Amino acid sequence: MWHRYLMWFAHEHVDFRYAEIQSILSLFDMPIKYIEKPCQSKPYWVVELPSEECVKKIASRSVLIKNCIELWATAKTEARLHENLKSSINNVSGNWIGADKSDNSDSHICPRELLEACSDSGKSFKIEVETFCKHFTMKEKVDKIEKFSYLPLKGPVKLNNPDVMLSYVEFYGVDPNNVPEHPHNLFFGRWVADGQRDLIQVHSLKKRQFIGNTSMDAQLSILMANQAQVAQGHAILDPFVGSGSLLVAAAHFGGFVWGSDIDYLMLHSRSRPTRVGQKVRTKDESIRGNMDQYGTKSRYLDVIVSDFSLPMWRSDLKFDAIITDPPYGVREPIERIGIERENYTLSDAHLPNHVPAKVEYGLPHIYSDLLDFAARHLEMGRRIVCWYPLVREEYNEEHLPFHPCLRLVSNSEQVLSKLTARRLLTYEKISDDVPEMPVDPHAVEHNFREKYFTVGETTRRERKERRAKELIANSYWIEQSKCKNT
Ligand SMILES: C[S@@+](CC[C@H](N)C(=O)[O-])C[C@H]1O[C@@H](n2cnc3c(N)ncnc32)[C@H](O)[C@@H]1O
Known about the structure:
Blueprint: E1 3-9, H1 17-27, E2 33-34, E3 44-49, H2 52-59, E4 65-75, H3 78-90, E5 107-108, H4 112-119, E6 125-132, H5 138-146, E7 164-171, E8 185-194, H6 198-202, H7 218-227, E9 235-238, H8 245-252, E10 256-261, H9 264-267, H10 287-293, E11 300-305, E12 319-324, E13 335-337, E14 358-360, H11 363-377, E15 378-391, E16 406-415, E17 420-429, H12 441-444, H13 448-485
Parallel strand pairs: 6-7, 9-10, 9-12, 10-11, 12-15
Antiparallel strand pairs: 1-3, 1-4, 2-3, 4-5, 4-8, 7-8, 13-14, 15-17, 16-17
Helix pairs in contact: 1-7, 7-8
Bound molecules: S-adenosylmethionine (SAM).
S-adenosylmethionine binds at residues 212, 214-216, 240, 242-243, 245-246, 261-263, 266, 307-309, 325, 327, 332, 334-336, 361.
C-alpha cells in the first residue's frame, strides 16, 4: 500500500531539487506520485511512495533533502491539525480523510504505526518541533509538544534515539522579512529518514587535504554524482579533473574513478597552495591523499596529465558516467596544445626537452569535444553531467550544447552574480550511431570569458566607486558625531 510522505528540503539550490530526486528515482527504478505539484516557493513536497524502503533509499542519496516524514495529518491551522489527528485515532480505516480536496492541505490518516506506537508500552518516543521561517524558544516548543498529550502513547519519552520519533512542523512561508503571525501549513507525522546533509560537512573543502582554486564544493559535487546516477562498481571519468573534487563524491557512492587534466603542476600537487598563509604544499596533498582521507582509496584508479582536445583513451573504452566542470577561462586558463605558426615542424634534437605550445581552447570547442567524447565513450543509457557558464540575459535553451546521440535530461541554474550563472546540464546517451559533428554555430558566439570580463569590469568598477562613496559618507557622519559628542 502506498504511503504519504513529506519530503523536507534545505532551502538552497532550489532549482536542482527536481533533477536530483528524479535522478535518484530513476537510478533505483522507483515510481512516485506527487500529491502537490513540486514548486520552488515551498521547501517541501507531499508525495506518495510504494514503501518506506523507497523513502530510505531516496534519503540515502539525496543531499538536498533534510528529512522525510510519514505524513499523518496536515492542516492550515493548529486547532484543525489537532482535530484531524484526534479524529484519525478514532478512525482506523487506513484511508486518507479529506485528501480528495483539491489542495490536500487539510487531510489526515490513522496509520498502523500510530496505533502500534500508542498500544505498545515498550516503545519509547519523542516529539520534535520544527518551525520554518520563525524562531521559537525552547519553552514555546515544549508548550506546542504538550498540546499532543491526547495521543494515547503508552511508552516512555526518550530524547536520544527513541523507537518512534514524531515530527510536528509549522511552515511560515519563505520570506524572512514578511513572517505571518500564524503558519501557512502544519504537518504531523513519523520521522522516517534524514537526507545526506551531514556529508556536506564530512566532505567540506575546509577540512580537505588537497584543494585548488577551482575546487567544487562538497554539496554540488554530491549533487552531480547523484545526477550522474553513480552506483557501486561504475567506471567514472572527469576529463577536467583539477583537484579531483568530483571524484571524491563519485567514489563515495561506489564509483571507480579516473581523471585527466592538462595542468601537470596541479595533478602532481606542485601548484601554488590555495589556503591563505600556506607557502608550499605538503606531501600528502594530492587527489590520492584525498581518497585516503575519505576511506575510498580502493576506488581511485588514477589521474593522467592529458589535453582533452587530444583524447588518449582507447576507442572501445566505455564509462558509466562522465562528471565534469570544464574551464570557463575566469579562474583558470582555457588552453589546448597547438601552435598558431603555420607549417611548424620540430627537429628530432629538440624533441626530448620540448614543452608544447598552447593555444586558446574556446568554450564552443570544449563542449563540442565533450559531447562527442560522451557519445563515443558512454555506455548506452548512461549520463554526462557538466557545468555550462553563461551570461544570464543571453540564455536561450535552444542554444545549449547539443548532440544527436545525447538527450538533455535536466538543466538547472546556479546564479553566480547579477549577470552570470552556470547551468548544470545532464545528458543521457540514447544512440550509438555517432556522426561527425561540426562545432555548433550558435555555440561559436559563446565567449563567456570575454563577456565575463567586459560585463564584470563595469559592475566591479561601479561597485568600487559606490563603496568609495559610502566610505566617504560614513567617515563624514563619524566626524560629525564626534564633533557633536565633544
Ligand atoms: C573548473 S576546473 C575543474 C575543477 C575541478 N572540478 C576541481 O574540483 O578541482 C577546470 C580544469 O580544466 C583544466 N583544463 C583546462 N584546459 C584543459 C585541456 N585542454 N585539457 C584538459 N584539462 C584542461 C584546468 O587545468 C582545470 O584544472
